[in-house]
Amino acid sequence: MDNKQSISKSRRVSVNAPARLHLGFLDLHGGLGRKFGSLGLSIKDVETSLTAEYADDIDVTGPSAKRAEDYAEQVLSHFGINGGVKMTIKSAIPEHSGLGSGTQLSLAVASAISNLYELSEQHPNRLAAVLHRGARSGIGIGTFMHGGFIIDGGRGENTEVPPVISHMSFPDNWRIVLIFDDEAEGINGVPERRAFNTLPPMDDVMSGLLCRLTLMQVLPAIREKDCQQFGEAITQIQNIVGDYFAVAQGGRYTSPFLKPILDSMKNSGATGMGQSSWGPTGFAFFPDETLAFQAMKKVREEWQSESRLRFIMSKSCNSKAKIILNDLNAPTQNENLKVTNL
């Protein structure tokens, strides 16, 4: 395919992809023929944002530029595109923080290029497969496509990308305090693959409990806007999964600061807490902004001597990633076209 001549060189594509929390796995036993299955939530205030324009070569600037350049090269090569892309990354989800930086960046890059070159293949599931995302979890792809609270169905023998089996809007008034440890890093790459390949299957009773907690407590609590019930179930899921991975990550949490901080959050009214994916980012759920703000203020004061720690108050993002097309030659901004057919 040669799209170099057909592309409109005056087009600019902008993509905003929110971060996501990975709240736990459902089945690390696999006795029913599927494995993993994940719970995830799209969140605001941490995102990957980029713009892309036509170029003869690949030119990427901004945070995570090298990673984005690699993704761009893979996409252009896969689709046989005889052309390049000039990409400016305005913000990027911190890498190896447990917030889905790789999946959101890869989908943002692939979506920008597919819209820039007007490719027929633009569905996030297919783009994720091209870039080998979704090896275990499909929630990052799901939050990119839908936003909100996502559950994926894990991987079976013929699964290309873990399918989204539940998508719900998350209560808008609930708040999440995020805990960042800028000197710690979650397991990734070869150590991550080794962990999944060497850890023994989870006990089937424990896997059954994870599924029961999800189906009979987490999902109904979201629907009924019961933050207490939701939080209790998430904490229990987090403790089970965290203890299962403890041998690989050196304990229930990656950051040594996370347990005492989360204990303080619990005493300040947090209903649920844990670590997103391999961490080190931690989270605590609160039923309203006032409680969340007071709890965050307290831990900031308690840990102000540790410059490596940062705290952010966030909330759910119930909308999908934003993809906007601009015609740079258009006389007004009214010519912008927001793409909604993810």
Characterise this structure.
α6 (204-223) runs antiparallel to α7. β1 (11-27) and β2 (36-55) form a beta hairpin. The strands form two sheets. Strands 1, 2, 3, 4, 5, 6, 11 and 12 form an eight-stranded mixed beta sheet that branches. Strands 8-9-7-10 form a four-stranded antiparallel beta sheet. The chain has two domains: 1-168 and 320-342, Ribosomal Protein S5, domain 2, CATH 3.30.230.10; 171-315, GHMP kinase, C-terminal domain (Alpha-Beta Plaits), CATH 3.30.70.890. With 342 residues, it is an alpha+beta fold. It is built from ten helices and twelve strands.
Short description:
With 342 residues, the protein is an alpha+beta fold. It has helices spanning 65-78, 101-116, 124-130, 139-146, 189-198, 204-223, 227-244, 246-249, 258-267, 289-302, and strands at residues 11-27, 36-55, 58-61, 84-91, 149-152, 164-168, 175-181, 272-275, 282-286, 309-314, 322-327, 337-339.
Notable traits:
four-stranded antiparallel beta sheet; 10 helices; 26% strand; disordered N terminus; 12 strands; Alpha-Beta Plaits; alpha+beta; single chain; 342 residues; Ribosomal Protein S5, domain 2
Helix and strand topology:
Blueprint: E1 11-27, E2 36-55, E3 58-61, H1 65-78, E4 84-91, H2 101-116, H3 124-130, H4 139-146, E5 149-152, E6 164-168, E7 175-181, H5 189-198, H6 204-223, H7 227-244, H8 246-249, H9 258-267, E8 272-275, E9 282-286, H10 289-302, E10 309-314, E11 322-327, E12 337-339
Parallel strand pairs: 3-4
Antiparallel strand pairs: 1-2, 1-11, 2-4, 2-5, 5-6, 7-9, 7-10, 8-9, 11-12
